[in-house]
Design a protein that fits this description.
The structure is a single chain. By secondary structure, the chain is an alpha/beta fold. The protein is 36% helix and 19% strand. It is built from 11 helices and 12 strands. It has a 9-stranded mixed beta sheet, sandwiched between helices. Strands 1-2-3 form a 3-stranded antiparallel beta sheet. Helix 3 (145-162) packs across helix 5 (192-207). The radius of gyration is 20 Å and the shape is globular.
Length: 359
């Protein structure tokens, strides 16, 4: 998809100066993903190359099994989307993966095809219950709103699973209750969702085990987390493969919209290994599996985070996705058609499966 980002930027240059029929002017745009108007309104309609649009299509839930799983929506605060794999052992409960979506805190919907194809596959491979949720988006909702929402997902999960079965009216809630092992909850997040894995886990850890019992966060899996510094890293300055999913323009503008007013990338939300953040030795974190893409723009700061965890005495494993760029596994086209991307995606799934089985 190397040409998609180039086409998107060309289209962006034209649209940034556009005036809509209602008189609104586009004052900022992020690589075809998001437009900001002079009246403060936001448009997240995809304006990039049409070849990528199928990846943003909404996937409807289904109670009849497909490829070994069912998919359910649970309206509420917050709304949950649940993948339930079919298993032969009906007596056993399954670990729960809580997926915190990426998108620079500014875009994305967990119902999109790009997430669906990966997390449906992961649910069956582990096997595990996979719970996702739509997180609040910036610039309307700046950090720490997304962190609070991630914690709320865990609270609602615990409420549903610990409720009396008779009190659960929604059939999907009953299925979630029957399938879930709350003592083995794993946080998995891609890109900015990787930041949320760290911060949500830290908040739960700060509360203490008794506060959250019987729910226990047994591990975290930040995938290509959006950990950066205000000063560019070497990998950000290197020439890398063009990607519609991640550019320096997206990195800079999304974080400017998402961080608290006046904050830089050295803020703890984006630099938990920096001097402005609490010392990692003092942060209660579960075991971590950090996935780092070899050709990611922010590879160097991802590795710096891993080194900081080790130095602080934390349990951390690192998976290097060789020859891959940011969020490669979400591009279903590449996963299906390119053998190397397909192989690396399977390696990522296998690593998560192994990590869950050992914790």
């Amino acid at each position: 998809m190397a040409t998609l980002a180039t086409e998107s930027r060309q289209k962006q240059q034209h649209q940034t100066a556009a005036v809509l029929p209602d008189g609104r002017k586009v004052v900022d745009e992020v690589s075809g993903w998001l437009r900001v108007f002079d009246d403060g309104s936001i448009d997240r309609t995809w304006t990039g190359p049409p070849e990528a649009l199928p990846l943003m299509q909404h996937v409807e839930p289904y109670a009849v099994p497909r490829d070994g799983h069912t998919l359910h929506d649970l309206p509420g605060e917050p709304n949950l989307r649940v993948y339930l794999p079919e298993t032969k052992d009906s007596a056993g409960r399954l670990p729960v993966i809580v997926q915190l979506h990426g998108g620079g805190f500014c875009i994305s919907d967990p119902s999109w095809t790009l997430y669906h194809h990966f997390y449906a596959r992961l649910a069956c491979a582990v096997p595990a219950v996979v719970v996702t949720a739509q997180l609040p988006l910036a610039p309307e909702h700046r950090l720490p709103a997304q962190i609070y929402s991630g914690v709320d997902v865990l609270r609602r999960l615990r409420t549903i699973v610990t409720s009396d079965a008779v009190a659960l009216e929604d059939p999907a809630a009953k299925l979630l209750r029957e399938a879930s092992d709350l003592t083995r909850v794993f946080l998995v997040g891609d890109s900015s969702g990787g930041n949320l894995v760290h911060h949500v886990a830290a908040r739960v850890g700060a509360d203490g085990a008794q506060v959250w019992a019987p729910l226990r966060v047994a591990g975290g899996v930040p995938i290509h987390p959006g950990f950066v510094r205000a000063e560019r890293s070497k990998s950000e300055l290197q020439a890398t493969a063009d990607s519609v999913f991640f550019t320096l323009d997206m990195l800079d503008k999304f974080l400017a919209m998402a961080l608290p007013e006046g904050a830089t990338k050295d803020h703890p939300y984006t630099c938990p290994m920096g001097p402005n953040a609490p010392p990692l030795e003092s942060v209660a974190l579960p075991p971590m599996l950090v996935s780092v893409a070899e050709k990611d723009l922010i590879r160097d700061t991802n590795l710096e985070y891993c080194d900081a965890l080790r130095a602080a005495g934390k349990e951390v494993e690192v998976l290097i996705n060789r020859d891959m760029s940011h969020s490669f596994y979400l591009n279903k086209f590449a996963v299906d058609m390119d053998p190397t991307t397909g192989e690396r995606t399977q390696e990522l799934i296998d690593a998560i499966k192994s990590f869950v089985s050992r914790h």
